Amino acid sequence: MKDLKGIRGKFYIASLIEEGEHEHQDFKFAISDARKIARSISAFANNGGGRLLVGVKDNGVIAGVRNEEDIYVIEQAAEMYCRPSQEIRVTAFRTEGDKTVLRIEIDRSPVRPVVVLEADGSRRAYYRVKDENILAPELMVRAWVASANSEGCVISFSTAEKSLVDMLDDGPVAVEDFMLSAHVSRASAEDTVIRLHSMGILDFHYNGKTFLLTRRNDPESEE
Question: Which residues form the Schlafen AlbA-2 domain (predicted)?
């Protein structure tokens, strides 16, 4: 296997590491499992995109990568274990001690959800929250699927839909609060959420504890 020959990037990589791990950046000490990398790719692609710094420990210490085999595993993760397959950009940088760090750039996917083909045969969508990859809530995944399959619709609100839109005008809303206010079942509430998401009216926002519903034009929405 060939050795990696990266471009000079000591200070650039140091500046990225100084940011720490966050919603759009994750450190990977080593590449050993393509599916684990696929989960990170899914999480970033389902959110606002992001980058992996491979060869960096969780504490920010640069360990470096071994060789081009790591790039093969990363590409395998994006192409074989993500659906739809994701295009990624891989750049190698030479850093302190002549160690090599890989910057893996992942764009937000125009088609969501991006799911991972798990070893047990299941398909799971992940979402980036702060410095963690979490399983995307089922309702959000259903809303993404409905939006992807939507061919447009005439905005004519039902009573429940109008009620939720009115609540969203006052700020983020929990599904449970909408159910109580509109006197609807969970199934009906979730159907309403999915329809309004397909219309481009609402989104999902993580408040640090749970996902809330927000207006699409809300600056704190996931968009």
Answer: 21-134
Q: 47, 23 in Cβ contact below 8 A?
A: yes
pLDDT per residue as tens digits for the range 137-177: 999 999 999 988 877 655 678 999 999 999 999 999 999 99
Rg (CA), the chain: 20
List, for residues 110-126, the tens digit of each pLDDT value: 999 999 999 999 999 99
Fold equal for 7-135 and 138-215: no
Q: From CA 127, how far away is CA 111, in angstroms rounded?
A: 14
- Give the pTM: 0.90
Take residue 187 and report the two structure tokens written for it: 């199934």
Helix axes 175-182, 159-168, angle to 10 degrees: 130
CATH top-level class for 7-135?
alpha beta
